[in-house]
Amino acid sequence: MNKPVKFDASGKPHIPTAEELGFDPAEMRRKYDAERTRRLRPDGARQYLDIEGDLKQYNDDPYITARIERAPVTEDIEVAILGAGFGGMLLAARLQEAGIRSFRIIERAGDFGGTWYWNRYPGAQCDVESYIYLPLLDETGYMPKEKYSFGPEIYEHAQRIGRHYDLYPRAHFQTQVRELRWDEAGSRWVVRTDRGDVFNARHVVISSGSLNRPKLPGLPGIRGFKGHMFHTSRWDYAYTGGSSEGNLDKLGDKRVGIVGTGATGIQCIPHLGKAAGHLYVFQRTASFVDERRNSPTDPAWYRSLKRGWQAERNQNFASLLAGIPVETDLVSDGWTDLFKSLNELLGGAGAASLSPEELALLGEIVDYRHGNRLRARVDSIVKDPATAEALKAWYRPWCKRPTFNDEYLPTFNRPNVTLVDTGGKGVDRVTEKGVVVDGVEYALDCLIFATGFEVSRVTYTHQADLEIFGRNGQKLGDHWAQGMRTYHGLLSHGFPNLFHMGFTQTGFSPNFSDNLNRQAEHIAGVLAEVAARGRTSVEATQQAEADWVALVNSPNQMTEYLANCTPGYYNAEGTSKGNDGFLQGQYPGGGVQFYEMLAQWRAKGDLAGLSLR
Ligand code: NDP
């Protein structure tokens, strides 16, 4: 399908015509726009329910076998780390390397792992290569089994890190921080938990997860369903049987419905299809599904890697995805292929010889070709033409998380699986017996929601389930009422010694763990520097914060791309004002430039934008 690049006399890349392409980009744009328009809804992100009150059980931990009984703790510590996912663990590792050993990790779950603790649904797998996704491989000496790891291996690796860095004695599990209150006189945070603990912490770092709070669609009747119901991030194996590896042997006589065909749905639907008496997949927007190309790790190759290889591989991956030229594509997979195709279309000439409009058009062409290839893939796998048509995605590839799975599409060839396409509007309602779409009731024994997680830039404390009172008792929620306000995404004015990790106005690149690692290195570096200067508090200046907020909220390529996307949590369900979607309001240059900027800032050593006391 890809035609070779041509150049005109000046060496400028030739923009292929509709005839050369075999499709008309303008026509394609109209089709994508129309698909977006029919999905837009006035209630935007408000279409989802807050899982509070009578829905609270959908957030409960189904994996706890016994409650940890312990007396409340009162302790003075240097750093309180909120969250025992990869962010919190990486921070603990980097703090130790920086010589800071007085810290505690506080976590609601029963063990390390974060997202991999919660998301144990069958088929859970990381779509980013294991060699760059699994943190601290150099340090722990672990060799991932395959190029793409499944959930249990990643969860085990979190525990390996916990043991390697001796983090278990410093972790309080099944403990929820309820309040952080700044004590001006002591220059410390008073951290209170639901176990009656009081930690007087010099610094607090919040790494509570960007996608940690399950959300349910606000469907009429959802509370009245009489069958069994759960969210994928709280999988009920007692009901389904089996494990993360599948074999859901209790579903053989059950009519199962699943709502949601995003990255999670794509991974668990094949297992449900194999096991259920009958499976109904309720689809609002089809996902692009590419092949997985997984393979076992070659031990000889792995042994040949020299110390520092993981950071180098991560830098190579992130650079390629940011359009920064690299000599070799070390990861070489579905993610990097897509970025390489734009570079190939540009040929050696690069972007400089093209106008912004021409460059944007070439970017669109690459995306449409990619879409055509994946739509043709559906036709080559799914036998029923109407089902195949409904499974085709019509949006640009970065509007939603790209997915990779070899078993998803063949699942729709099974006689016990029905795709119920809702024509972009979603499920109508839930009854006592099942789900209604277009006036047809589908009777179900079990209804599973693969409907994702709460994402909002202004309800950060709600998502983390705690209240934060900074200087003069000011609530963080009030300070951020009009959106996040940080400096470098890490510190806020009026909230000294309180650091955030994640996509909080930082820089984005698709490998979450690499982002977290670089943030951990940075925070550990800042804390060590503050201590070395004999100071006890560090805070963003008002000006630095205001400048940073203006910078991350300035229009850029990413916000423009997302503004034209099909609705989803990346763009606040299509209603975004430019900075409130998950991928918006981040450093305009992207992850690679962001972390380079931070490294240069550290190297300068003047801690510009921070005030120390
Ligand atoms: P998403 O938010 O990506 O998907 C939610 C799904 O529910 C969408 O298909 C959505 O449709 C659908 N939905 C919501 N409301 C309705 C409704 N009323 N009727 C019908 N369908 C509805 O959640 P996921 O859990 O799939 O993924 C969340 C994130 O988790 C991913 O983006 C990714 O970052 C991460 N993840 C990563 C994985 C990895 O491999 N690393 C694997 C799995 C998840 P619509 O698209 O129309 O909104």
Could you name the CATH topology of the domain at 74-213 and 455-552? FAD/NAD(P)-binding domain
In terms of structural class, how would the helical and strand content be classed? alpha/beta
CATH architecture of the domain at 74-213 and 455-552: 3-Layer(bba) Sandwich
How far apart are the termini?
Answer: 62 Å
Which ligands occur here? NADPH dihydro-nicotinamide-adenine-dinucleotide phosphate
Strand content: 5-15%
Query: CATH H-level name of the domain at 74-213 and 455-552... which superfamily?
Result: FAD/NAD(P)-binding domain
**Text of the CATH class of the domain at 74-213 and 455-552:** Alpha Beta
Overall helicity: 25-40%
Categorize the overall geometry: globular
Describe the structure.
- With 613 residues, this protein is an alpha/beta fold.
- The protein has a domain at 74-213 and 455-552: 3-Layer(bba) Sandwich (FAD/NAD(P)-binding domain).
- It has 21 helices and 22 strands.
- Helix 12 (334-346) packs across helix 13.
- It is globular and about 70 Å long.
- Mean pLDDT is 93; it is low at 1-5.
Summarize the structure.
The chain is an alpha/beta fold and about 625 residues long.
Main attributes of the structure:
613 residues, alpha/beta, eight-stranded mixed sheet, five-stranded parallel sheet, globular, disordered N terminus, binds NADPH dihydro-nicotinamide-adenine-dinucleotide phosphate
